[in-house]
Specification:
The protein is an alpha/beta fold. The chain has 2 domains: 2-121, Response regulator (Rossmann fold, 3-Layer(aba) Sandwich); 130-224, Arc Repressor Mutant, subunit A, CATH 1.10.10.10. It has 8 helices and 12 strands. Strands 2-1-3-4-5 form a 5-stranded parallel beta sheet, with helices on both faces. Strands 6-7-8-9 form a 4-stranded antiparallel beta sheet, with no helix packed on it. α1 packs across α5 and α6 (155-166) packs across α8. The longest helix has 16 residues, at 106-121.
Amino acid sequence: MNILIIDDDPEIINVISLTLRVGWPGVEINSARLGQHGLDLVETKQPDLVVLDLGLPDISGFEVLKQIRLFSDVPVVILTVSEQEADVVSGLEMGANEYITKPFRQMELLARLKSTLRLLYSPEKSESFIKIGTYNFFPQMRKLESRHQNISLTPTEATILLHLARNRGKTVTYASIAQKLWEGDYPGSSEAIRVYLRNLRKKVEKDPANPKIIKTSPGIGYYLFS
């Protein structure tokens, strides 16, 4: 397992590295303090996972992510101080697999990094396809297909949609979704789940502001209506 950390703070790099070495024996760690150097390492080292800060001194983390997605589908976890919803949405829409804010709990970080790889490379076994509205949902392929549209889902989006589909008509709580994604709840997980659901609605709903498929149970969670 090869993990690349792109962060300009040497203390953060040391903390992440120590956390990984203790909780993930045998992991190989590379690091870069500049965005351009990080891009070079993604290309030459071909890491299994990238941990990316947004506040880099040479180019922004968003630009690094944008450039990575031009040539690689390596899972990228953003780890940054910014809690702004616009940054969270932008990061996920640009192709990040996860978004975690600093300061972070070390064991939570480790669990979420492992979960990112688990969702990506070990998708949950399920039905060959599930009917959702006008779409056929193929969980293993992480795709929605209809007569006029083919939609690709991220591993996280596919996991959430499958969880909702298996509990169709029942409210799935925030805690239940967190357990499915990260094998445990953590502070701030509800906010992250709201972002994932917002992006998922943009893909499946004709009018995301007035959803007909993925409904909200205020303060509790979500349910699949169709």
